[in-house]
Structures are given as structure tokens and as C-alpha cells.
Amino acid sequence: MTERQAYRVVARHPGFELRRYPAHLVAEVRVAGSFESAGGAAFRPLARYLSGANRSRRAAPVAAPSPPEPAGAERIAMTVPVLQVEGDRPGSWVVQFVMPADFTPATLPEPTDPLVTTREIPGQLAAAMRFSGRWTARTFDRRATALGRAVTAAGLTPAGAVRYARYDPPWKPWFLRRNEVVLPVAE
Description:
Structural class: alpha+beta
Distance between the termini: 33 Å
Shape: globular
Oligomer: single chain
Radius of gyration: 17 Å
Strand content: 25-35%
Order of helices and strands: EEEEHEEEEEEEHEE
């Protein structure tokens, strides 16, 4: 079973949950393009990183690694959700894979692809709106706008950029997909 990013629901408000996310590690790629194309452009280098395009920081196992993996590489389990955040320039996006919780900054493998970077995201309080449907800019924009309004109506203050979360693979029927918009809020 695929590991899901941990969080704790601290309150429920009309239209969203208020969640506490612990600090966590991500592998990320910055890409240019449309909202819809960003995930596909970033997927390959991130998937290669998970599949062994990395240098392990853990002690080498007694048994030799399997032949397809370079010496010193480590396979990393896929987790959900896949996150997407608007980049610092128009038309740019940051796509992130959340790393399994058993990794620490000291044990997370180092990427060999210069497009892939890893970092720790500090713990935070965030509002999250869950929905099903297609993964389009229009759908997410509508949900992000609705979440922002619901957050301010609840007397909370947004404290960062909205992130878009996908929990399911693209071949899952659109009406069964779990998607979320997540907005950090001030403590």
C-alpha cells in the first residue's frame, strides 16, 4: 500500500479541514510550462530518483544491490500526494514528491540528476479542501479561490502559496480521483 503524507485534522470548517502537517522531506523539480504539462515534465526525473538515480547516505547493505541500480543507489517507495506549487516566475511550477516518513535529512539519498533537489518542509498549519475530478488549471483555480474565501470567512489568515495535491494515478477514472487544494494559514 502506498504511504500517505501524515497530517492531523485539528478542526473542521465549512468547506475545508484545518490540518497540522509535521515537517517532511520532498524531492522536487522546477519546470516551465502550463499547469497541466508541469506534472508530466517533472515526473520522469522524479521517478528516476525514486528508482535509484541517487547516492544513498545509508550504510551499504550486506548483499549487493540488484543489477539495474548503480552501486550505492537506493530505491525509494512512492508516496502520495504529488504536490504542485506555482514557481517564482510566471509559467513556472515546482512539482514535489513527498518522501517516506522513515527518511531524515541525513539519510535521504542524494539525487544524481541536477534537475532534482531535496529539502525539508517545516511543519505547518494548513487549510485543505478535498474534491474529485479532472486535474485542470480551471478546476484547481476555482477550488483555490473557494478555499481562500472560506479561510478568510473563518477568520484565518493565509500564510503562503496554495499547493495542489494529486493522490491518484492518471489512469484512475476522473470521478474517482482524490485531489486537494491546500493553503498554509498563520498560527
